[in-house]
Write a structure and sequence with these properties.
With 286 residues, this protein is α/β, with parallel strands linked by helices. The chain contains ten helices and nine strands.
Length: 286
């Protein structure tokens, strides 16, 4: 089980960092009480939990409980667990500026003074910072640059996928286009299994329906061109800092052709080291 613990100064970018890890396939838990970390890992290892990569954020929001974090990290490491500690930091001036911009209360600023909360945090996390595997000072980093730093480090240590997730959504045009789609493709030109009585009640997830819709020459040409285009675009999106892409595939009812194409794209693009998920919005609602 690959485990990452993100901690550090409040306002230094821990939320941005946990989002990056989530985008590259980690199951993420924010603001966990430190003494629950090892118990949660044990629970996952002893169950059918479908992941081998977990990331936690544990910080000053836990109040006095955060004092257990160093002990918890030490216990994991002595127990032979694969545990990476990422510490986010920034200079005091930057942290104060960020808190004033967001108008949020500092978790350790009990008297209302941000500077006092920062000073207390620095003392609280001094030992953890020294023992961290990776320390990133975000004082002069853009969010995009922080993402690049995190991805670069975990790419060489634990990353399995390119730093962009692809979600392929099949749908029926009669119920409208999903609002979150970045790209939409209409496959209603393909042979429609609805008009074959033996296939009508089956879905595009079955081999019979997929073969019917996708085996003709026009369908094959479309699939090749669509795959080539997506594989051309994905590195360009990554370069621009995009971390997710939603591709909509639409047919009339969202049961046959769009489902078959969505499954095809998932199987094809995932072979190129991209994390691809598929969602059949209208399957079962025909």
């Amino acid at each position: 089980m690959q485990t990452v613990i993100i901690t550090g100064m409040s306002g230094a970018g821990k939320t941005s960092a946990i989002h990056v890890l989530e985008d590259i396939g980690y199951y993420c838990i924010d603001n966990i009480p430190p003494m629950l970390i090892s118990s949660f890992i044990t629970l996952c290892e002893g169950s059918n939990f479908n992941t081998n990569k977990i990331a936690f954020v544990a910080d000053a929001r836990s109040g006095e409980l955060v004092t257990h974090l160093y002990t918890e990290i030490d216990k994991l490491r002595r127990g032979g667990k694969e545990c990476t500690v990422l510490f986010l930091d920034a200079d005091d001036e930057t942290l104060i500026k960020r808190y004033k911009e967001t108008r949020r209360k500092h978790p350790q600023g009990g008297n209302g003074r941000i500077a006092d909360g920062i000073r207390f945090e620095r003392e609280l996390f001094s030992e953890i910072r020294k023992s961290a595997d990776l320390v990133i000072d975000t004082s002069n980093l853009l969010t995009r640059e922080l993402r690049e730093r995190v991805v670069s480090y975990f790419e060489s240590h634990t990353r399995e996928y390119e730093p962009i997730s692809v979600n392929v959504v099949s749908f029926g045009f009669k119920r409208g286009i999903p609002l979150d789609c970045d790209l939409v493709f209409d496959v209603r030109f393909m042979p429609n299994p609805f008009y074959d009585e033996e296939l009508r009640e089956k879905t595009g997830k079955t081999k019979e329906v997929a073969d019917y819709a996708l085996s003709c020459e026009s369908s094959q040409q479309f699939l090749q061109k669509l795959t080539d285009m997506l594989l051309h675009l994905l590195p360009l999106y990554i370069e621009e800092g995009k971390n997710s892409l939603v591709v909509g595939i639409g047919c009339t009812g969202g049961k046959h052709r769009s489902v078959a194409v969505a499954e095809y794209l998932k199987n094809t693009i995932s072979q190129q080291n991209y994390y691809v998920s598929v969602n059949h919005r209208d399957l079962g609602n025909e």
